């Protein structure tokens, strides 16, 4: 099953889940019906429940009913479902999060993959709130905001509004501070090459600043400079997306890479950049990406990072297919393919300390999963 999202107007959304031979019939019927109600859709103002919305919903329902019959006649699956949103629904509705497995799938976009998998395998009941209930709620608001932004152009205002949704206390303000980042592990030659090729960062060694291993300095400083770089990034992205034959994975990966390298905010730069990456993927009808390592972006070349984004999108799609096959009662452990890991953890008596509000060791989670994977192999 694949998903396609397209925006009709600035507030009205139609989400289509497609699959099988019924898809072509549905798309053609929807195109014909929506052409007939274009003028009505134009009457929709500020997401209000107007007569135009009611008429459009009625038309969409007719299309779905017709497609169900067509799908059966063609021997295909049941018709895809369409949902119309006005922006007034809770984010869970906008994002289509109706089951526990779907919530965990969404959480895997914001929680580090090793941490998420260990939490599920250990039987942790609510991994989505490991960083706090407020943080999860803010993330859902931000994610829904990108979905509602839809097929509109990238802009500086969109980036700052998105950050404001994600981190209300920071109010979307660009930081006036100089920013540095460091990692507690040795750097590889390929990472040095990627950083030195990146115009937005400067490679730092322990000879320059007192670091245990290595680090970077973000070179775009000052609010005016940050706004200028974001505007240039938006112009680049909007232009690139108009070029025929562009690679949507490459475009989304480079967008994320540029935003996190500019590092415009005091905090939440990584999350904002990944939200924009997934927004870009979904604009092109692709699944969002479950990244293997959030911190690998700046240390990766654009081609390598594109491969990582593509792989994460494929993983999301595979999990979505598994969730659909397992049904509404799907156990996230099965949906994520973690049943064997769970058994190994239970047999060994090993675990990782997971307490909301406390620092959690991602590297410990990664090492534990690697050890268990090697043992099972």
TrEMBL record:
Residues reported in the UniProt entry to bind ATP: 267-274
InterPro entries: Fido, Fido-like_dom_sf, Fido_containing
Active site (UniProt): 263
Segments crossing the lipid bilayer: none
Provenance organism: Nocardia stercoris
GO molecular function term, any single one: ATP binding
Highest taxon above the source species: Bacteria
UniProt keyword list: ATP-binding, Nucleotide-binding
Family matches, as SUPFAM superfamilies: Fic-like
Protein name (record): Fic family protein
Domain called Fido: residue spans: 154-325
